[in-house]
Write a structure and sequence with these properties.
This protein has 446 residues and is of the alpha+beta class. Helix content is 49%, strand content 12%. The strands form four sheets. A six-stranded mixed beta sheet has the order 1-2-3-9-6-4. A three-stranded antiparallel beta sheet has the order 5-13-10. A hairpin with a 2-residue loop joins strand 2 and strand 3. Helix 12 crosses helix 17.
Length: 446
């Protein structure tokens, strides 16, 4: 039986909102001690924090139709991704998911492996031995280049107009997402006007890609080509707006989440040289100095374990919110239509009931013999249920290939005095970025 608890009474006006916003991750961890389903007050409104894998399964799978993405999430993301897979609901979501699914078939995404490795090699060809690298910025630049080529067959440099527009739009959305109260977008503030200008430019660029592809009918092997060719049961295809919304959803999600994951991987490896040594041993055995390919992935088991454990400790999606659409029960506890739930992925990933030594970095948790023992809904780096991230296989392939490519040529060291703290933004990232020293490894490439 799961337990229900109400948090100690908070501020008479703000409830627990100020405490939660001051240190969201610490607050979420503290609620684990209170119960499996914890009621707090966010301002005057009740908010239910879900802290147990069984309850997460109930929300995401068993009764998923009772819950929808929260209004706040939709409000902040709609200008950017419209009614893409991340924000759409009901029949529209089902249709779009069915249309988009073939684009992420294993055989299709295998074709992107070479793109991922080539761009990674370009990046590290610019690195010099014993120089300080902006790791977070480098990973973001790299994943933007990869997703641009994979979605639109477009080359970006990280400093061109498209990259600048995407970066500005996503960073502004990130800031809005973290505010308790945001001014309406129609108020002509400097930020709102600049956001509208950059978003307009971004939409024009995407529309140009769509128009050009419709004109030529060419399959360039990218995701946009797959979206254009997709048809539903009535032989209908996506409209230009749907194409734009899905392309932008994939672009935004595929860019930010993998960059955040890799940033934490480098940080954790620098803090645990014994684990880095095991990783390098596998890379030496499996690759022998050659660049990795899609066919090498089955031999990179420990590489995959390192990435999965990094996503356990620092899940890019640290939580998710849901609005309850009907009166119901959750774990036997009555909830009312309109209640808002916060799915505490970050907390459950570190819950001592489900993880031994939960705060330690132990990739062996995800070895073939151990992974099956993990409660399926105690580990949700890509969400779960019907709305699990459609690009999870793409992201895992990208992370493994990037890590294997870079780690053969460089070791990244954190300065001894450097303090790195996670920051709850739209994705989970280091509060003040991550600067590390790149040290070249003595590797002979085939």
């Amino acid at each position: 039986m799961t337990t229900f608890a109400a948090a100690p009474k908070g501020h008479f006006l703000f409830g627990h909102a100020r405490e939660m916003n001051r240190d969201t991750l610490g607050f979420l961890l503290n609620t684990l001690e209170l119960g499996d389903l914890v009621q707090i007050k966010y301002g005057p409104f009740p908010l239910y924090i879900v802290n147990h894998p069984d309850l997460l399964h109930e929300v995401l799978v068993t009764h998923h139709e009772h819950y929808q993405k929260s209004d706040t999430t939709k409000r902040d993301l709609y200008p950017v991704v419209g009614e893409g897979l991340f924000t759409s609901e009901g029949e529209l979501w089902k249709r779009q998911r069915k249309l988009a699914q073939p684009a992420f078939h294993t055989k299709r995404i295998a074709g992107y492996a070479e793109i991922m490795v080539n761009y990674t090699q370009r990046l590290i060809d610019e690195w010099q031995n014993d120089t300080v690298i902006d790791v977070e910025g480098s990973m973001a630049k790299l994943t933007m280049q990869i997703i641009s080529k994979s979605v639109f067959d477009a080359e970006v440099t990280g400093t061109d107009a498209l990259s600048h527009a995407v970066t500005y739009v996503l960073e502004t959305t990130d800031r809005r997402f973290n505010r308790i109260v945001s001014l309406p977008s129609w108020i002509p503030t400097t930020e709102n006007r600049s956001f509208d200008t950059h978003l307009k430019h971004l939409n024009q660029v995407i529309q140009h890609f769509i128009d050009e592809r419709r004109r030529t009918g060419e399959d360039k092997g990218d995701l946009l080509s797959m979206f254009l060719m997709a048809q539903d049961d009535q032989n209908s295809s996506m409209s230009d707006k749907q194409l734009r919304d899905e392309a932008m959803t994939v672009f935004g999600a595929g860019h930010e989440t993998t960059a955040a994951t890799l940033t934490w991987v480098w940080y954790l490896l620098s803090k645990h040289p014994e684990i880095a040594a095991k990783l390098h041993e596998e890379l030496s055995t499996a690759l022998g100095g050659k660049t990795p390919t899609f066919n090498d992935l089955p031999n990179l088991k420990y590489t995959e374990m390192v990435i999965k454990e990094a996503m356990r400790l620092y899940p890019p999606a640290w939580g998710a919110s849901r609005n309850l659409m009907v009166d119901t029960t959750l774990g036997g506890h009555a909830l009312k239509r309109g209640n808002v739930l916060l799915l505490n992925f970050y907390g459950v990933h570190r819950h001592p009931k489900f993880w031994d030594q939960p705060d330690r970095f132990i990739p062996e948790r995800f070895s073939p013999e151990n992974e099956g023992k993990i409660h399926k809904y105690a580990y949700l780096p890509f969400g779960g249920g019907p709305r699990i991230c459609i690009g999870n296989a793409f992201a895992m392939m990208e992370a493994r290939l990037i890590l294997a490519t870079i780690a053969q040529r460089f070791t990244l060291h954190l300065a001894p005095e450097e303090t790195v703290l996670p920051s709850r933004r739209f994705t989970l990232r280091p509060k003040d970025g991550l600067k590390m020293t790149a040290v070249a490894r003595e590797t002979v490439f085939a």
